[in-house]
Amino acid sequence: MWTTLLMVTDKNGERKELEYRASTGYFVSIVVTQWADLIICKTRRNSIIQQGMGNWVLNFALFFETIVALILCYMPGMKKGLRMYPVRWYCWLYGIPFGLLIVFFDEGRRYLIRRSPGGWVEQETYY
Fold this sequence. Notes:
By secondary structure, this protein is mostly helical. Helix content is 72%, strand content 0%. The chain has six helices and no strands. Helix 1 runs antiparallel to helix 3.
């Protein structure tokens, strides 16, 4: 009976660890999509290709955000402090398609705004 109880407790512990790893993976995906969000917020009308990445404060912010996320994911003590368990490197790749979708959508929106200034797209999506 005690061995069965210990096995159930161990399985529950493994499930909780899996849950914490999943929430850390979700956090990592949010960070990756925030990279795309920060890049698209650079300009209102110009394309990212036209504008470039010459803003060193913004580049530092991207770098700093990544470093903070790495610290939160992989620093010892975060398992108990924030219940953030380390994830494998490929978990950082899961958010990239969504980030690319955000960038492509916004580039298309900017193209339509440049193509027809004052049009429907600008009235509905321009801030």
